[in-house]
Design goal:
The chain is α+β, with helices and mostly antiparallel strands. Strands 2-9-5-4-3 form a 5-stranded mixed β-sheet, with helices on one face. A 4-stranded antiparallel β-sheet has the order 1-7-8-6, covered by helices on one side. Strands 10-11 form a two-stranded antiparallel sheet. The longest helix is centred in the C-terminal third of the chain and has 17 residues. The two termini are about 30 Å apart.
């Protein structure tokens, strides 16, 4: 599933092609939610909010997509051959700039009206976006306390987009390793200091990967990552064999070093 940095990059790529231009064509055969944007409407903004992409047209009509495991946004010049089959297109936005943005195979494609008096939108529940330059860490730490249960594993809390938006399965494992916290630790046993350190690390790593090039969370490690996808391989910090287990209520793959992350929210001195 794409994480916050991936959606941020998508928004950066689409923005110059769409924003400030007029809509020529909009197609979305399975669209759910509110009204459709109309040809001639101005495309006002393209923004990432956590794992959601929001494209706002005039009159407040906003297209929301969530790519999950299957979706992707492509950008083509008008008339250019698509790299995926037409039947997989879930949304097509053609602008008078000559660009065509196509969302393929996304399970969530809907519109809503973002205007005064229209009520909260479908992303109103999200916590602070960790890809933004400035975040309120005090608010994030407070949301951990108010939105999670004491026995909830910290690996699940990090994935809770209501607490803070943008962390996915890769960053979850990488952040826990960076802060030396066992992913199986109940959140009640993770100190307030460690909670702050986890989200500080997540913010730093996500921000570091908003540009071009491959994702790197630990420079010098194979594939640029410390533990994710490296089961049985040596930890780049201590050499211990990395473990993997399906953890949490969603049984998501989680990777960690049993020596560097010894449990109960411990964090050894580096």
């Amino acid at each position: 599933m794409p994480e916050g940095d991936t959606i941020w990059r998508v928004a950066d790529r689409l923005r110059p092609a769409l924003v400030g231009h007029r809509l020529v064509r909009f197609e979305a055969a399975r669209l759910s939610g509110g009204p459709r944007p109309r040809p001639g409407d101005l495309i006002e903004s393209v923004e990432a909010q956590g794992k959601h992409l929001l494209i706002r047209f005039e009159r407040g009509v906003t297209l929301q997509t969530h790519l999950r495991m299957t979706g992707a946004w492509h950008l083509y010049r008008r008339g250019e051959r698509w790299r995926k089959p037409v039947h997989l297109a879930r949304a097509v936005i053609e602008a008078d700039s000559g660009w065509v943005a196509v969302c393929f195979a996304a399970p969530v494609v809907r519109t809503f009206v973002d205007a005064p008096g229209s009520g909260p939108g479908p992303t109103a529940h999200l916590g602070p976006d960790l890809c933004q330059p400035q975040i309120d860490l005090d608010a994030v730490v407070e949301r951990v306390a108010t939105l999670s249960e004491p026995d909830e594993l910290i690996c699940d809390v990090l994935l809770d987009q209501r607490v803070a938006a943008g962390i996915g399965n890769v960053y979850k494992s990488e952040v826990l390793w960076a802060c030396r916290v066992d992913p199986r630790t109940p959140v009640a046993e993770v100190t307030v200091e460690d909670r702050r350190l986890l989200y500080t690390a997540a913010h730093r790593l996500l921000r570091a990967n908003l540009g071009d090039g491959p994702r790197v969370t630990y420079p010098g490690a194979p594939g640029g990552v410390a533990v994710y996808g490296r089961r049985g391989r040596p930890c780049p910090r201590c050499g211990t064999s990395i473990q993997r287990q399906l953890l949490g209520h969603l049984a998501r793959s989680t990777y960690w070093c049993p020596r560097c992350q010894p449990g109960a929210g411990s964090r050894d001195q580096q």
